[in-house]
């Protein structure tokens, strides 16, 4: 299973590169425009949110760190981000995924619990759910990002095919 999950994540990273290449063609100020009713507001903010979710769920929650020990991108970080900085944030996410897959490769169905902000008692799930959630979360927001780009007058490439 480990090899399949690593290969699957490799395919996800490949489709992400298509999105990065497209976003690099859009002026930076446009990537920061708030598009109402989409994602986290802007293309940059939404994409950073995706990377932070990988880092949180797979790099922090799974390893039983407290939420307070994890730092999400600050408003300043987001405001001063460009596609290169988002790529860097995804490199940190990729490292978290690799560490996660190495650690949990033989325990993907064993429960893991940690605190979440929406309840007092620890929340329990499986590593397989955490991986599935973060990957589907990325594709959900990738759809929002390409829709935001269309609303801003850009024609995105197909970002789902490798």
UniProtKB/TrEMBL annotation:
Family annotation (Pfam families): DinB
Name under which the protein is recorded: Damage-inducible protein DinB
Keywords: Metal-binding
Signal peptide: none
UniProt lineage: Bacteria, Bacillati, Bacillota, Bacilli, Bacillales
InterPro entries named in the record: DinB (IPR007837), DinB/YfiT-like (IPR034660)
Family from the record: Belongs to the DinB family.
Transmembrane segments: none
Gene3D superfamilies xrefs: dinb family like domain (1.20.120.450)
